[in-house]
Structure formats: C-alpha cells, structure tokens
C-alpha cells in the first residue's frame, strides 16, 4: 500500500485506489441551509480526484463512505457535473461503501455507474468499511472520523494536519474532500501515523 499526499491510499498489486469522505455537494447543502458560502468545493474535489486517478493509473476506485454530503447537495447541477465526471473516467470501476451521509442522501442515479455496497465489504485481506470498527472478516480500511493530529513546534506554535492512521485492526484514511476539515485523534502506542503536509507524507509515529 502507498499512502499518497493527495489523501488517497493506492494498492499497486490490484491497481486500486481508496479514498474516504469525499463529501460532494457540501457547498450546495450549506447554501440550502441559508449558510452563505461560495460554491466551488465540489468542482475542486472532483478535479483533485481526477488528478489522483491519473497519477496512480488506478483501474478501480473504492470510495470508503460519504461520497455525498447531503441530499440537499444533490442538486441537478452537481448531479450532472458528477455524471459528466464519471463518464470521463468510464474505464475505471467504482465502488461505494455506504457511509452515514450516503444513507441519508439516497441512492445514486443509474447513470453514475457506481456499485454501492454495505459495510463490511470483503476485498482480499481487507474489510472495506466507513466506520473504523474492528471486523472478523479482515483488516479494516475506513474513514468517517476525518483524522488529524496536532503538531507542535518551538514557541508554542501548533498546526492540525490530516493523517493516515494505521492501528492493529483498522486503518483510517484522511478526508479527501476539499470542504471537510479534520478532527484530532489520539493514536495508541505502536500505531503508525502519516501526516499530509506541503505535498508530502511524513511519518510521525
């Protein structure tokens, strides 16, 4: 497995790319709730996803939950934008492991051409999930919590950085979407953590 600075995990042996928490349509959903924010994060997120697909050359894309943020964000404009994006990557097989936001957003249209499954979904030695909970069916690859760690420097400076978090039974990927943020996590002793910073992957534990 290769942890990428684009917040994706690549499995070269299977030419498969994993991302979590894309949260398309969050900008539109916020506007629908009368929260004044500019549109653009959905388009930028899809551009980033195209970039990482092209960079990796992946033949399969696994979405580990929360592809869409909310039903209100599935406007005709953004639904059409997603379908057009999907057509540009027609040769890539796509599978969505339903997350809590996907369940509330409703099923994807048929023209999206994305296979939808419930968690856990078995794939080789892995149990593909959205929730980072141990499973008997394999090592868990998941998302949901948008993991980040606080890095402290001299002079009491600190910054919270998104991270990949590998524990003994489960891995949690950073949130891929542009409009997501991250929550502080406390890895246990022996866990491996890789932060994403300035276009690089850095091991911090």
How does the SSE layout of this entry go?
Blueprint: E1 2-4, E2 8-11, E3 16-19, H1 26-32, H2 41-56, E4 60-63, H3 76-88, E5 93-97, H4 100-105, E6 115-117, E7 121-123, E8 126-128, E9 139-142, E10 147-152, E11 158-166, E12 170-172, E13 183-184, E14 192-197, E15 200-203
Parallel strand pairs: 3-4, 4-5, 5-6, 8-9, 9-12, 10-13
Antiparallel strand pairs: 1-2, 2-3, 7-8, 10-11, 11-12, 11-14, 14-15
Helix pairs in contact: 2-3
Overall description:
- The chain is an alpha/beta fold and 205 residues long.
- It has one domain (2-203): Purple Acid Phosphatase, chain A, domain 2 (4-Layer Sandwich), CATH 3.60.21.
- Helix content is 20%, strand content 31%.
- It is built from 4 helices and 15 strands.
- Strands 7, 8, 9, 10, 11, 12, 13, 14 and 15 form a 9-stranded mixed beta sheet that branches.
- Helix 4 links the parallel strand 5 (93-97) and strand 6.
- The model has no long low-confidence stretch (mean pLDDT 89).
* Element order: H for helix, E for strand: EEEHHEHEHEEEEEEEEEE
Strand content: 25-35%
How many separate helices?
Answer: 4
- Determine the fraction of residues in helical runs and give it as a percent range: 10-25%
CATH architecture descriptor name: 4-Layer Sandwich
Counting helices, strands and paired strands, the structural category is alpha/beta
Biggest beta sheet summary? 9 strands, mixed
Features:
205 residues; alpha/beta; Purple Acid Phosphatase, chain A, domain 2; nine-stranded mixed beta sheet; 15 strands; 20% helix; 31% strand; globular
């Amino acid at each position: 497995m290769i942890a990428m600075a684009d917040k994706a995990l690549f499995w070269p042996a299977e030419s498969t790319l994993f991302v979590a928490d894309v949260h398309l349509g969050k900008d539109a959903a916020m506007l629908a709730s009368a929260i004044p924010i500019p549109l653009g994060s959905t388009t930028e997120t899809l551009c980033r996803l195209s970039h990482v697909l092209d960079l990796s050359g992946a033949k399969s894309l696994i979405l580990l939950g929360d592809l869409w943020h909310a039903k209100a964000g599935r406007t005709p404009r953004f639904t059409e934008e997603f379908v057009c994006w999907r057509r540009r990557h027609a040769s890539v097989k796509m599978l969505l492991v339903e997350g809590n936001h996907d369940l509330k957003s409703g099923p994807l249209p048929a023209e999206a051409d994305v296979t939808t499954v419930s968690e856990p979904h078995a794939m080789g030695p892995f149990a593909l999930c959205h929730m980072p909970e141990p499973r008997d069916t394999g090592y868990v690859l998941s998302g949901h919590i948008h993991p980040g760690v606080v890095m402290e420097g001299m002079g009491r400076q600190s910054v919270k950085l998104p991270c990949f978090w590998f524990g003994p039974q489960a891995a949690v990927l950073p949130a891929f979407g542009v409009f997501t943020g991250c929550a502080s996590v406390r890895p246990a002793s022996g866990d491996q953590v890789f932060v994403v910073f300035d276009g690089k992957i850095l091991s911090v534990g």
